[in-house]
Design brief:
The protein is mainly α and 199 residues long. It has one domain (3-146): Jann2411-like fold, CATH 1.10.3300. Helix content is 51%, strand content 8%. The chain contains eight helices and four strands; from the N terminus they run H-H-H-H-H-E-E-H-H-E-E-H. The chain has helices at residues 3-13, 21-26, 38-47, 63-80, 88-101, 128-144, 146-150, 178-198; strands spanning 108-112, 118-122, 152-154, 163-165. The strands form two sheets. It has a two-stranded antiparallel ribbon with strand order 1-2. It has a two-stranded antiparallel sheet with strand order 3-4. Strand 3 and strand 4 form a beta hairpin. Helix 4 (63-80) runs parallel beside helix 6 (128-144). The longest helix has 21 residues, at 178-198. It is globular, with a radius of gyration of 19 Å. Mean pLDDT is 86; it is low at 1-11.
Amino acid sequence: MALGTATAAHEYELRFDTGRVCLDLLATTHPVERLSSVEVLRAWITRSGLVPAGTSLAHADSSWPAAFRELRDAVAPLVRARSRPGAPSHDRALARVNDLARAAPPAPRAVPGDDGALVRCLDGPPGLAALLAAVARDAVDLLTDPVARASLRQCEGDNCPIVYVDTSRGRRRRWCSSEVCGNRERVARHRRRAALTRT
């Protein structure tokens, strides 16, 4: 398989349906590790909205995926904690997230686009520390917002670890994605019904 084809396949599998960039980062572990290459991480950074479309990330090197995976590992136990953090592992994770959140994020500015409409661009190529800071700050915002925190849900799909913000009417959303886990559940339900009618 050509590199371009492999990269396109990985990009197709990236998920952006959790409602928060820090939760989208957590979703990169399901069903397998997604952030295994610089190319896929570049696609994730762009598609997550951390940088404007067309921003050059050519300077990203092989250390970047490991740094994003480290941040993901620190955010995961904090988001998934059912009670208040307090365990030593939570304290270390929280300290790491807070430390990463201190770096200045990329500075956006508005400039005229090709058609004259204002578009967002960055003053320069975003550095690793600034991008990590943007995700870490999103995690800090989520963890410290009681309303958003109360809206966190674990997907009810079989073996799906994805956590999302439920902004649905009546807070009745059951799956990370109706098209993915919801569809699997509907197919499984149909098969169970069909099996019952055959017996």
